[in-house]
Amino acid sequence: MAALHLAGRVAAHGRLHAGRGPRRPGHRAGRHRMSEAALPDPRVLQAIPLFKDFNATDFSQVLDVAERVTFDPGRLILEQGASSRDLWVLLGGTCEVSRRVDPATTDARRVVLAVLEPPGHFGDMSFFSPSPHSADVRAISAVELLRITHADYRELIAEGVQAAYKLAYNVTESLVRRLRRMDDWVAELAVSTASHEEAQRPEWQSFREKLFDRWNL
């Protein structure tokens, strides 16, 4: 997938490298945008589910507040139990989503929940509803991501930017698909490991509710 590059100086912070382009005249402090000359082929952006039905104006408005960030292999991007409100879109590389077996202890045992590849995304639930992350997201390879902060997104909403509403709609669609897949998986698991009567036991219902309620990246 083509990489996104920002114009202007690139600042490096340890192993995290972030780039921001110059603000356009009249923009508020903190707003930044990507150089139009450096934007990837529109077909690359349109292949990203979160940008479905975006037009050229929509891309310009969202990329106005987007930031390109890269992480080295092994770098922790989201930490289980921590709180942040950034929306991340994976442009290149691979990330692993994992969870400590017992979050209440220092037990190092982990369960891998998913492996993310482009054009995957994460952070969407915390982005719209503040709460601690329920899992770690770590870079397996060198990764390149597009980050949108909640503060910048709220600014787009306040300005009535249409792209912000399209993004929210696409995130909602993504969450619905995730919940449907989870529901199907729980049903298959129940059938494969227990009779119908056993699957209705409170333990199974509690397990299912936890999957729905606690999957929060």
Describe the structure in your own words:
- The chain has 217 residues and is an alpha+beta fold.
- It has one domain (10-214): Jelly Rolls.
- The chain is built from seven helices and ten strands.
- It has helices at residues 42-46, 56-63, 124-128, 150-158, 162-193, 196-199, 202-214; strands at residues 10-13, 16-19, 67-71, 76-78, 86-92, 95-100, 110-116, 121-122, 136-139, 143-149.
- Strands 1-2-3-10-5-8 form a six-stranded antiparallel beta sheet. Strands 4-9-6-7 form a four-stranded antiparallel beta sheet, with no helix packed on it.
- Helix 5 (162-193) runs antiparallel to helix 7.
- The longest helix is centred in the C-terminal third of the chain and has 32 residues, at 162-193.
- The model is unreliable at 1-30 (pLDDT under 50).
| Number of E-state strands | 10
Strand order of the largest sheet: 1-2-3-10-5-8
Rounded to an integer in angstroms, the radius of gyration calculated over CA atoms is 19 Å
Question: What's the overall average pLDDT, rounded?
Answer: 75
Q: State the helicity in percent bands.
A: 25-40%
Short description, anyone?
This protein is an alpha+beta fold. The protein is built from 7 helices and 10 strands. A hairpin with a 2-residue loop joins strand 1 (10-13) and strand 2 (16-19).
Q: What's the structural blueprint in terms of helices and strands?
A:
Blueprint: E1 10-13, E2 16-19, H1 42-46, H2 56-63, E3 67-71, E4 76-78, E5 86-92, E6 95-100, E7 110-116, E8 121-122, H3 124-128, E9 136-139, E10 143-149, H4 150-158, H5 162-193, H6 196-199, H7 202-214
